[in-house]
Amino acid sequence: MVEPMHIACVADNSERAQHALKELSARYSFVDLGKKRNRPDVIIALGGDGFMLQMLHQYMHRHIPIYGMNCGTVGFLMNSYNPDNLVERIAIARTSILHPLRMYARTVDGKEKHQIAINEVSLFRESRQAAKLRVTIDHVVRLQELICDGLLVSTPAGSTAYNFSIGGPIIPLNGNLLALTPMGPFRPRRWRGAQLHHSASIVIEVLEADKRPVSAVADFTEIRDVVSVSIDEERSISLSLLFDPEHNLEEKIFKEQFIY
Length: 260
Description:
Oligomer: single chain
Largest sheet: 6 strands, antiparallel
């Protein structure tokens, strides 16, 4: 006898997502995710990509696959919303495994902070003056001095988002690569970024930090006034996203390379 599937459902605060939650709750029996003794087999997330990122961060430690349904705008990390045959859709869904980045940041006052990023780690200038950065990859200085508006390190899952909008490459989900992409590079003017092996250890030092302050952002968490940032892929963390077979994440990312 097949065990029944235990499903939890969460929704963002938008009217569309709340309406979907009400509709689904009337048709399906969901477990209460707030009770620690309940461990659902899957979490349904109703919202957009931003909400999905929030849920991945929030429930990362519980190791529960998440099946998203788009009640937002783009919905790149989501499936289409359809209240019918939900249990059957989840049962045949394909799993995409994501490994996030871990960022260690040291600030001008000597504090050390770390954050997890599923999409990207970004460094931004805080003032009218351009940032001045030194980039080291696997203990080798590759850029002695990069003058720019900022610099971004992206995972494959995040490569179609902010990374792509600033001219970075789209990376296939199984490409085992990270994208290193500058924002508004002034010097060296012709440098447009690099693709790094996923095991690369990246260190970005902020030069003249007192004169040219820089902030570091891991997905949506900002740390201001950093002097150095270390970034590595965190292979010990595996995030499971579920997708309908015809719209799996690997295919979505691949297709983005042919959209013009």
